[in-house]
Amino acid sequence: xxxxxxxxxxxxxxxxxxxxxxxxxxxxxxxxxxxxxxxxxxxxxxxxxxxxxxxxxxxxxxxxxxxxxxxxxxxxxxxxxxxxxxxxxxxxxxxxxxxxxxxxxxxxxxxxxxxxxxxxxxxxxxxxxxxxxxxxxxxxxxxxxxxxxxxxxxxxxxxxxxxxxxxxxxxxxxxxxxxxxxxxxxxxxxxxxxx
Length: 195
Fold this sequence. Notes:
Blueprint: H1 13-19, H2 27-35, H3 51-56, E1 60-63, E2 66-77, E3 90-97, E4 108-116, E5 119-122, E6 127-128, E7 151-156, E8 167-175, E9 181-194
Parallel strand pairs: 2-9
Antiparallel strand pairs: 1-2, 2-3, 3-7, 4-5, 4-8, 6-7, 8-9
């Protein structure tokens, strides 16, 4: 199981109001945790990431000699219409190599954040999902990216209730088999309303 850590971010009252988190399994807690400093004053966990670092993350990284980029689809579902505010934010994120060859073996997406203004949401869970065969599961029945796939894809669920039309920066941490990691960002992705 992935170990959680604090993200050192000051979440202003205005940003928290704009975020309007929904009642979801972890969306509210993840958004609140992003605004809290869980370490002693002045201390910083080794894998903590600041808001400034997320905003400065590069648009591409090279791992094992391969240039990787991130794409993202963000949406809120208004169905069923009986739900007053719709469902929480969901996203599909895909990291791919620009050469179109199979995704580098041993490289994984290990964390993901969505940034809107001063508000930062770290996904509490990343669900792998193969791009060409979304139903693919490993021998243990866990959803996985199929070996040899050209992209590494993850699904995020139960995010904040940001309004459709809002633009967000999406950031992931990619980690290779040796434990080396890098941040990767795709800016100004629009949250759409799925009906």
